[in-house]
Amino acid sequence: MTVRISPRLDAIPHYEPGMTTAQVLARYGLDAAVKLASNESPFPPLPSVEAVIGEGVANLNRYPDPPAGALRRALAERHGAAFEQVVVGNGSCELILLAGQALLDPGTSVIHADPSFALYPHLASAAGATGVAVALADDDGHDLDTMAAAVDESTRLVVICNPNNPTGVYRSADAIERFLDGVPEDLAVIVDEAYHDFVARPDRGRVMSLARERPNLLVARTFSKAHGLCGLRVGYAIGSPELVGALDKVRQPFNTNALAQAAALESLRHPAELERRVASVISERERVERELRARSRAFTPSQANFILLGSGQGSAADGTSVHERFLRAGVIVRDGAALGCPGRLRVSIGTPEENAAFLAAHDHVYEPQAMRKDA
Ligand SMILES: Cc1ncc(COP(=O)(O)O)c(C=O)c1O
Fold first, then answer.
1. Tell me, what's the pLDDT at 16?
2. List of domains in the chain
3. How far, CA to CA in Å, does 113 sit from each of 102, 183, 348?
4. pTM score, two decimals?
């Protein structure tokens, strides 16, 4: 006898996580490996954040503050928004999923780009709604005109990933504003800015100012990337009290754990230290891009903390894929096939040493005598 589980679940796409360092070490008999596969920060949390986490452990017999009041107030102040315009969650993933729960019903639809963040197709499947995936433009960025044209009466939500994961392409604040002007004012739009900190453009952050004013716009950010807190799970979103209130209604009261709230609050107090770390990632990204150019390796110019590159035509003389050859060389990159980008690899930007290890592995993997051109 089988348990009667909702048939909606059949439509939920399978998520294939990247290999862990331990798995790669065991499989290839390595002593060490560099992990550049999950767009994490190469830096641990700031020392004062580590201290706050340590102090918080003694109070874990108590539930966390349900509205995450102190953190919400700090975020509201940081972004010039009202307290009612901020919602905090167990990673920005939770908030995006909650938006799906709050906004979608069977018979409605959600529009997102493809390839984009693997979470988005879940929103439709989980709600029994329809997912409309709009192919990226030729530059690997969102095709905002086609996305706007895809809006119809059934559309309840549009998700824009900016910069886009896995391609790293950034759409300007002007382009996002034009998109918002072209869709109905009562249609909810989420701009997922998980990689916002790594954007090196003068309009960085302007979309957030639109979220303070436009009733249908929600901007999601995370402490997982620049703040180096992905293991704790904490993200936030800013939008109109109406949209934020909808997410607040469907979230569980204690959705953001106490250590995450305290750590995020402390991390916000040190913008200069964080900016130095972000600047290092940006300058390393530019260096890796220069090195790839010097090697004639095709890649998509990125405004995030990762780069999507062509894996080339060859396979190794022994038939192993380019992705596997990187793993064997002790550099864990992400196979583009698992991200909807077959024939490509995504490499996260690490410390200068980690990026040097990636470039050395690149030169080893693509050694002319190690490759043949028939794959
Ligand atoms: C586009 C995008 N949004 C959100 C997230 C997840 O963020 P969080 O760790 O806050 O759930 C990621 C993580 O990789 C991402 O790539």
1. 77
2. 7-44+272-372 (3.90.1150.10), 47-270 (3.40.640.10)
3. 21, 16, 21
4. 0.96
